[in-house]
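Quick one:
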Amino acid sequence: MIHYALGIDIGGTNIAFGLVSSEGEILFEVSFPTRNFEQPTDFVEFIHQFLSDKGVLDEIIGIGIGAPNGNHFTGEIRFAPNLHWKGIIPLADLFEKKFHKPTILTNDANAAAFGEKLFGNAKDLDDFVTITLGTGLGSGIIAEGELLYGHHGIAGEYGHIRVVHNGRLCGCGRKGCLETYASSTGVVRSILELESAHKSSSKLPSLEKPSAKKVFELAAQGDQFAQEIVEFTAEILGSSLADFAAFSDPQAYVLFGGLSLSGESFAQKVKMYMEANILNIYKDAIEIRISSLNDKNAAVLGTAASIFWKTIQSKTK
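Output:
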């Protein structure tokens, strides 16, 4: 019998889950809007019933969950600003009681780091940082082959480092956080903020439901206002990564999800602004890579990888 890890990725917009083998083979993946589940218990019950109907419960060796503000040590989601589930949610405990399987909960960006290390574009790296660019912005830090959790289990909240004094209001309650500028929602907010300087021929202000994807598409087609937003986003992100280098001295940053799907052109812009603002001792020493998991069920691979990562680490100690 092939055993699988259940990988679950909880985002502000969607929840994805599926079964993954230790070789990175995905048995299946499904996705639902997060708001389909009014309470976390509704979500746990739904997944258990779904997998029971498929007859695969006995093939699961463990459950890996990636979530915003996920605390690895406590197994809790704590005050996630981009989730409609509020307060402190003991999600790992809820899954363990229902499934009777070991459960690891971690920050969604940490899960992305696991996935990149085991299955993706960081197999050759022992020091790197994943930057997740979705509804919000997170970071997963691998240093000397180990994931950095921090004392409280919540290291890597780089999206909430303030980059603009008294800037945009963030879901965390503060102003000027990086994720309010360099995330999918941040890009959409830039449309309104920068609209006064746009060219009259731009299609962006007339869009009924603008999105980051559409901004990047129009930028590639030559829309000058869209290009201004992409440039603005890359400058803030690149400058911030320059500062972050002084903390962890990575071999590379791996851009994951959301904005990174626009490809190498955006990565090159980020790299340019990073090099323009970085300390001399780090110049030309840090790569900007695009996740190779973005088209490979990345969220589920990353969260399932946390289970396999734990197995690998226990064998090496």
